[in-house]
Amino acid sequence: MSILTILSVFIFFILVPGLGAFSVRRRWRLVRGRLLEAGCMPRVSYHDYTSWEHETGGGVIGVRRMLACIDAVEGDDTLWVSNAELSAAIDMHQQKVVLLSGVQDDLLAGGMDEPAVSPVVLPWKRMLMISQGMQVFVSGLLYSEGGQLRFRDNPQQPLLVFIFEGDPGMLLYRGVWNSRQRNEYFNQFTPGSLILGSAALIFQAFVFLSDPDAYFLGLVALTMGFVPVLPLLPPGVAGYFLFRRLWRYGRRLRSQRDLLKVPEKLCSQGEKIGLTCCLDDGSASDRIQTISLAMHPEGAQWQLMINKTDDPLFISVRYPQNPAGIRHKLNRLAHLVEALAVILFGLALAVNWYLMFVLLSYLV
Q: What is the reported pTM?
């Protein structure tokens, strides 16, 4: 195999999609982290607003969060929202919105399946379907301007805007569960990179095959040019579907790992946000939802996170004791499953590559 062929395969089939995969995974990790941080912020209140106006006459109120519904859109970049207590404007200039559609009210009670529709991050300018009454969760710096509340983006404290459906109390759990790509390798850079890589390899094959002394190099380059479609051909296609199944399972394990971060993170700020966390002594109400995990040992104790406020963002939850230890086990198992998936995919690809090489050696 020539150096040029090796470089083409590495750059177009591995490096570019791989960098895109790391970028996508990092982006969703930031979304999940910012959502959890937002859950620990103080929520904006009418008392907070009136006190600030009376003492200072306006300015930066501070970092706040707000659950509300859309009222109206003013101009191109202002979104007006309100809840039962107050209304506020959100400055949407150059802002991105996370759309979380669907309802998963049974997520914690064993409904931990793949989301029917993954979340979508869209620039505000591309939000064509906005209707009154849609639920919004926003966090960031809140300002008082001329007697009005306004959320604005800031480099040190960027805005986070979720538009979602379903129970607000499930937003943190659904956001953490769903905010990840189904397969990071297939990102926005992958299609173009695969097409360019195949074209470059086929062109190299044409050049090599015109020289009888480079026939083998040409045959290798030509076979490499078919790599993007080889996983979909028999017999290796069976390995491809097994890879997808294992990768999906690994994704669920990572989602369960991150799901345990929600009560763990909230309980670390319990006093500030009105939550009480304690061991479960069996006297809790049946209305408390349980985070059910297969890795929770039989007979192990549970912990409770009780919502003592009227804050609709929080629900009372029962979750396994020692969540950090369980998260470590889930993380390790997810890495093992995903490594096995990649190995099986590589073996299936190698089998199909060899069969294609033999076939082309007869045809070319």
A: 0.89
